[in-house]
Amino acid sequence: MIAFDDILQQYGGDPASLLKFDVDGPELLPYATLTAARLSGDLDLAALGGVYEWQDRPLLFLVDGTLLDGNPQRLSRIRRLVAMRGDAPYLAVVTSGGMTIYQVGLEGDAAQARVSISKANDDRRIVIPHLGNLRPQTPANRRWISDVILRLLTSALDELAHLAVADGDAISLVGRALFVRFLADRDILPESVCAIAADGASALFDSAPTAVATSAWLDETFNGDFLPLTAATINSLPRQAFDVLGHILRRAQDGQLQLGWQEKWDMLDFAHIPVGVLSQAYERYLSHHEPEKQRTEGGYYTPRHIAELMVRAAFAALGREGKTHQARVLDPAAGAGVFLLTAFRQLVAERWRHDGKRPDTETLRQILYGQITGFDINEAALRFAALGLYLMSIELDPNPEPLQKLRFKNLRPDVLRKFGGSHDGAPSKDLGSLGDEVGVEHRAAYDLVIGNPPWATATKLSNWSSLEERISRLARERIGDPNVRAPIPNEVLDLPFVWRAMEWARPCGQIAFALHARILFQRGETMPEARNALFGALDVTGIVNGTELRRTRVWPEISAPFCLLFARNAVPTVGAGFRFTSPHLEGPLNQSGAWRIDAANAEIVTNQDVRRRPE
């Protein structure tokens, strides 16, 4: 057995940042797909010994070179499998003589992906810092797993749309096919279900009779409400629709991935693709597929790593009270559920730490049903969110079999709630979760309100004046000034969510949002007055200004300046301040999707400074 700690230290690593896969613990939950495969006897992944994290994100997976048996194809397969996670950029083969570094990637063999560390060879101790800070040989055209899934998902749903399949039905059909594929790739699909089709699991959606029977099994075993679909709908589908669904179920021959790469469903292994990757792809699909609704409702997908950073920071703040395992979390603009999934996993980790044992199926259900809530105006997004939560429940379950014990309650309305929105798929003019439809039972009900609310402007939503009055009334109550105004310039949508979060979060609870950075810098259209009111009513504790990083892989497809706001749900005391940090452009680092947040060198800004100079 290779002593990873010793080798890492020789190359400038900190053993405290090493997570070993043979020591189970809550910090390994983000790697549950890998640890589960190793426990099940996967011969390739037996050589994968751990992961080294850099600033709380995976930097390189560690392979025990003595367990590769001199087989270069085994290394190439490991490299492909960890690439399906979409996180760490490097793989390190560790032997008693040192480390050999490879780029992680979906295509090509390992020998072609070897990273030269010749510049650092004069002093081994700078190798890992060199990888972490500069990301050498990170290809500009790297094929990202989230991009691959987005293209395949878009293609499947677009093909069904061209066949006149209604959007809601298409989402349910594709979601059910993906759910079955997820179970099949993780070898937990019962033989009796595979036998529904003569050709096994890959043919379960090849025809109406097999698809109806498979869907009936899903309804009976799990809960059909999460992706509603009737037998009549399936029987009405044209022949070509089953071809589309059949492609999703196609797996590699004998479960062995080919080393050559093609962008096809059968090149993927959903045993190793984290649910968060799917959720991120769903959100991107929604913004591409419904651009007018995206413009009106203002939703932007959230990169998984940003959701993870925000959840981690918010729970660190909650941790000072010692009750994180009991926290209730709300995302009032949940989309496809990226924040809900991340918070769910964090809550499971916190429960594990508190109880001293890994949460079982019953405990996972308690967390899902009692501690997570998501609102949204978009029915398609909520269907994707439900699918993601079901898949995450299975991913985190140490003993997911027999599947019969995994039957879920309907997540509507206690976990997921739709507020407003049209019923015909047209862009909505409703206030959604900003409106009065959200009941008083949600007032002060959550320890953490978190998310990425819509950033749209001038959407001319109905009942906007009532929302403005509600916010002004709240501002007057919190600030204690009957004359204070809290305008919402140009009817922006993200700012009202911050105000409403003050009602939903309990006193001294945490609020964390990804916002358009106009709240920080815009001068006209009454924004200085709006900023003044916000910082007078809310104890902001930290802001990450991401303005420089738009149009980078840190947040792909976003051209607007953005920021991350962290706050405690209380009126700031005299002299209260917050940390303000502005990550800068760092070419190769940002190109790899990473960024540097140097909290130690953050500027301290007081709320009074903001109010005195709101411009």
- In percent, how much strand structure appears in the residues? 5-15%
CATH class category name of the largest domain = Alpha Beta
Number of strands: 14
Class inferred from helices and paired strands: alpha/beta
From the alpha-carbon coordinates, what is the Rg to the nearest angstrom? 24 Å
What name does the CATH topology of the largest domain carry? Rossmann fold
CATH architecture of the largest domain: 3-Layer(aba) Sandwich
List segments where confidence is low: pLDDT < 50 over at least 5 consecutive residues.
none
Trace the largest sheet across and list its strands. 8-7-6-9-10-12-11-13-14
CATH H level, superfamily name of the largest domain? Vaccinia Virus protein VP39
Largest β sheet strand count, sense and barrel closure:
9 strands, mixed
Mean pLDDT, nearest integer? 90
Helical percentage: 25-40%
- How many helical stretches? 22
**Structural domain tally:** 3
Domain DNA methylase adenine-specific: 277-545
Organism: Paracoccus yeei
EC number: 2.1.1.72
Catalytic activity: a 2'-deoxyadenosine in DNA + S-adenosyl-L-methionine = an N(6)-methyl-2'-deoxyadenosine in DNA + S-adenosyl-L-homocysteine + H(+)
Overview of this protein structure:
By secondary structure, the protein is of the alpha/beta class. The chain folds into 3 domains: 4-134, no CATH class; 145-273, no CATH class; 277-612, Vaccinia Virus protein VP39 (Rossmann fold), CATH 3.40.50. It is 40% helix and 13% strand. Helix 5 packs across helix 11 (275-289) and helix 6 (167-185) packs parallel to helix 16 (379-396). The termini are far apart.
